[in-house]
Amino acid sequence: MAIPSTQKQWVILGKEKDFDELSFQDAAVPKVGENEVLVKLQGASLNYRDLIIPRGTYPFPLDLPVVAASDGAGEIVEVGSKVTKWKKGDKVVTLFNQGHQFGPCDVAASKSGLGGGLDGTLRQYGTFSENGVVRSPKNLSPTEAATLTCAGLTSWNALYGLKVLKPGETVLVQGTGGVSLFALQFAKAAGATVIATTSSAVKAEMLKKLGADHVINYREDKNWGETARGLTRDGAGVDHVIEVGGEGTLTQSFNAIKMEGIISIIGFLGGTEPKDSVLETLSRVCTVRGVYVGPRSLMEDMVAAIEANDIHPVVDEKVFTLGTAREAYEYMWTKSHVGKVAITIE
Known about the structure:
The protein is α/β, with parallel strands linked by helices. About 25% of the residues lie in helices and about 25% in strands. Strands 3, 5, 6, 7, 8, 15 and 16 form a 7-stranded mixed sheet that branches. It has a 6-stranded parallel sheet with strand order 11-10-9-12-13-14, sandwiched between helices. It has a 3-stranded antiparallel sheet with strand order 2-1-4, with no helix packed on it. The model has no long low-confidence stretch (mean pLDDT about 95). GO terms for molecular function: oxidoreductase activity. It comes from Lasiosphaeria ovina. InterPro entries: ADH-like_C, ADH-like_N, ER, GroES-like_sf, NAD(P)-bd_dom_sf, Zinc_ADH-like. Pfam families: ADH_N, ADH_zinc_N.
C-alpha cells in the first residue's frame, strides 16, 4: 500500500473559543524517524479531557496548536531504521503519555500527553516512538481498541497501580462514563463484587448486564455512600471507589470507603469545590489518590487481561467519522452518550 504525502487532521488552535478552536486541515503525512513507527490510524475515541482542552479548563500542560485526541488504534505501515519492537502490519494502540513507560509519572512524562503536549490521533497517519504504542488486543476492532488509551488505562491503574485489586474485594463505580464502565468490567473479571451508581432505570439495566452486583439510583437515594457501605460484609465499606464526580460525589465516597481503602480521583464532572476536608483521610483511615492515566507497563498488563477475559469496551451506538469529529465533541458534551464515543478513520 502506497503511503500518500498528504492527509486530513483536526487541530486545536487555542483554548478561548470552545469547539470553534477545532480546525479540519490538510497536512503532510509525517516522516518516520529512526526510532519511530508510522501508524495508519483506523479508530479514535474522545475523552472528557478532549472537550475541556479547547474550552480552556484542562489542568495539565498544553502545547498549542496540536493535533487533537489521545486515543488511537491502527496498523503500522512503516518502521524507522532502528526500530526493533515492531514490523509492518502490526496492530497497535497509542500510549496516552508517551514518556510514561513504567513506575510513577514524573514531570517530563506529564508533558508528553497525545492531543495536549504532542500531536494526537484525529488524523489519518501519525508517527509515534516505538515505545509510544502497545499491541492491540486480538479480540477488539480498531474503534474498540482506541478506547483503551485513556479511559481503559486510567481505570486499570486505579485498580492495580497502587494496591492490587483482589478477588472478593468490593469496588464502587459511579455512573456510565468510560472509566466507570471499564472499572466495572475489569473488577468483575478479577472476581470482585461491584456496586454501581446511576440516575436512570435504563442505565441500571445496562450496568446489571455488564455484571454489576448492586445498582443504586443516586437521584432517589441521596445517601448512596451509606447504602453502598451497608451492602459490604459486616458493613465494613468498599475497598475501591472510582471517583468521577468531585464536588457532587466525594462526601458519599468517603461514607462508602473501608478503612485502608482507596478512593481514586479520576474526574470532576460534578464540580471542583468539594465540601470535604483532606483530614477525612485520617478520620476514615483511607487513601485518596489522583490518577493520571498510567504507564506502558500497566497498559500491556491490561491488554493481556482484555484478551484472556474477552472484554469488549462499551462503545456508544452512534459512531462518527473523521470528517464529522466536531459533531462527536458536541454529542459528548450534551452527555447523550453511554460508554465511549468512537470515531472511525478511513
